[in-house]
Amino acid sequence: MKKVLGIGLLLAVLIYALPVICAWLEAEEPLPIPQDKVAADAENTDLNAKDGQLSAAGRITVQDGQEMREMELETYVADVVAGEISPDFPVEAIRAQAVAARTYAVYKREAGRPAQHPDADVCTDPAHCAAFVDLAVQASARWGESAEANRSAIEQAVQDTAGQIVTYDKKPIIAVFSAAAGERTETAADVWGSEIPYLQSVESPGGEGCPKYHGTVTLTADEVRERAAQTFPAADLTGDPADWFKASERSEAGGIITVKFGGVRVQGTALRTMLGLNSTNFTVSVQDNRLTFTTVGYGHGVGLSQWGARYLAEQGKSWRQILAHYYPGTEITSLEV
Ligand SMILES: [Zn+2]
């Protein structure tokens, strides 16, 4: 294996995939990728694996809390879309989100059930699989008077793209998405350490529409020391805080891949988790013994940017064009029952 995801980094990814309860604003890191799995899955996931039939159509088993629910794939996709994106987004952006969500669900199902839920293909924990809002029972509580219109908009977008998934080399892709990339998307290699041909860095205009595109977190030097004592005990934070961060290695998209922190080289994703930042694309300034971290973008920034998709849709791009942009080299394939 070329690169192994350290436990710390895996935790970082998992922790940062935290609740997407409030839909698109919180939508983020829906897909922690277990790095030891990516390579194997990429080899083993084959749409045509079962007697020449595309095995992805039909139903999916969802672990919802302690309950196992077998449901129509398309129903599940609509529920994920409801959890991941605002129904106010342009229809082409919602369609793109629907296809990305369907693709990821199919990818997960084809890849086999994980140890976290051995009796289900996917779960409703956004920290592990994808956000989920049960439209049949939660729409009213979620949207009040707009419930019917919003539910209808989402279900229509799902229906418009029914059975369509994104494929690379005839296999469903790992269709990761996040709320808002920076000016460019990140590569999977820079964020998770695995080279994936269709998760490369592409331009991503429009992310600044996201209310959390620009963010700041300010911590006292002591607060940073406390956190670091847990996460990076070897870091030497005895000196001037202005000297704590050095020699950052940034991706083409601007995210910190690694940086020397208190003399120890650490992953940008792990620092992001420790500091509670919106992205790994950050700078730090120090004043009066307080450190201010300024971020660009919201989420891991790999794959589809939801706010970028919104922008492209507003520019007249179709869902196919949006997906082709964010997952370069891929195709759209129809599942068959
Ligand atoms: Zn899961």
Commentary on this structure:
- The structure is a single chain.
- The chain is of the alpha+beta class and 337 residues long.
- The protein folds into two domains: 22-209 and 300-334, no CATH class; 214-296, no CATH class.
- The protein is 34% helix and 19% strand.
- It contains eleven helices and 14 strands.
- The protein has helices at 7-15, 35-44, 73-84, 91-111, 135-143, 147-160, 188-192, 221-231, 268-275, 306-314, 319-326, and strands at residues 59-64, 67-72, 122-123, 164-168, 171-172, 177-178, 214-220, 245-250, 256-261, 264-267, 282-287, 290-296, 304-305, 331-334.
- The strands form five sheets. A three-stranded mixed beta sheet has the order 2-1-3. A three-stranded antiparallel beta sheet has the order 5-4-14. A three-stranded antiparallel beta sheet has the order 7-12-11.
- Strand 4 and strand 5 (171-172) form a beta hairpin.
- Helix 3 crosses helix 6 and helix 4 crosses helix 11.
- The longest helix is centred in the N-terminal third of the chain and has 21 residues, at 91-111.
- It is globular, with a radius of gyration of 20 Å.
- It starts with 6 loop residues before the first helix and ends with a strand.
- It binds zinc ion.
- Residues 116-117, 122-123, 125, 128-129 line the site of zinc ion.
